[in-house]
Amino acid sequence: MLVLKSLDIDLIKKEKKTLFSFFALYSFLTIIIITTISFLYYNFQKDLMLQEKRVLLEDYSNDFITIIKYMHLNFETQKDYPRDGRFESAIYDSDKIQIFSTLSSKEIQFDKSIYLSDNKIHFINQPESYYLGSKYIIIEINDDKLWLIKVKRNILLYGSLAFIFMTFIGYFLLQLFLKPLKDALYLLDRFIKDTTHELNTPVSTIVTNIEMIDKNILDEKLLKKINRIDIGAKTISNIYQDLTYLTLNNKIISQNENLNITEIIKQRIEYFKTLSNIKKIKINTILENNTTLYIDKIKFSKLIDNLLSNAIKYNIINGTIDILLTKNSIIIKNTGRGIKKEQIDKMFDRYSRFDKSVGGFGIGLNIVSMIAKEYNLSIKINSIENQETKVVITW
Amino acid sequence: MVKKIILFLLMSNILLADLYQTNCIPCHNKIDVTLEKLFFRYLLKYSSEKNMKNSLTEYLKNPTIDTTVMPEAFIKRYGIKRKTTLKDEELQKAINIYWEKYKVFGKLK
Fold it and tell me: What is the ipTM score, two decimals?
């Protein structure tokens, strides 16, 4: 995404969501793998510890067997169960019935020879003969848990390192997957940049020369033709400015000032007059005098231009545009075919167009949203299909 | 009524004890190995109560050189015992008395 940023490309919400989903899934799988490996490592270390303890426990059990062997031969006089400070013990007969026990655990896992349970290590030995009837001799010692501390430390350390490493791998994988998308967007932006650059001189020449013509001396027929050229030139000029803004947006340094937006709105309405006249659209305005907003002049003009341009473009013949300016809001309402509710959220996405019968690149409202975002302006669009569309900007 | 029950239990015990006293002890007093030593030989080989009682029943009903727990020298000296003349029920009762008398369960401290 950083790469895309450097190319002046903002990913739309859906793409970001997809990337986050991929990253979440990747992280989840990484955690599953690390957890599985950690579990295997824990079991391996536990077995290793039990094998180390086995030697000691075998010695204890052999000592214990020697004593019960003696007791078996002298049971008449020797009935004191052998107790040892180093371990606890128990004897069970061949039917696994307890003969005697000093163990703290009551559940014995006879299917294992050595195991860990209730923080105690248990070792089960079978003597060569059943002294005192005991087929199973269980020796129990405390688990000092030193191995567990080491295992936990290693899992935490190496698990974290592995996760960081896998995150880096994920980041590079993500870049690899994004490359085709990045290339496509790069080509598109490059094309737009080149096109706008080539359009600059001819558009400027046309617009400047039309403005220089004294329209008062022209006859009606020629005036109509000149007006049409003026509209066409202004449309191209508007598209040119949008494209320039889009491609150079991140490099333009805002020159913010307390702007008299009432005047700017009036100027922009005047600018679009010829365009609205061609569709016989009536523009009604209620503008609060000397309303100011701390904003860059060019960016505010761009915002109003795009909203007005849309209000004209998607309007009907003999339609109306109502513009209301208050101290903290602008409302631009136009008649027209309106927008479906489910399409409203996607309107600000770049290159999204819902009415293909009208020209455009689908970048106007994207520019509006970018400017609004920069100046913390809230945009709300309400639309009634086949009736009207209302754009409300508040600050 | 209570007196009758106590008397009945007392008599039963005496009768059962007699079963073991009269049928086992007289013969074993004639040999050097005590019944206790014999018990621990069985225990050493059969471990559990169930296994020991089963093998003892089987041996007493059909004593052979293959099923004895005693060493060869003992057999050479005293030979194999005769088959028991006790009925199955009586034999089982006598064995139960024998088990209760010498069992390890509950005797370790």
Answer: 0.82
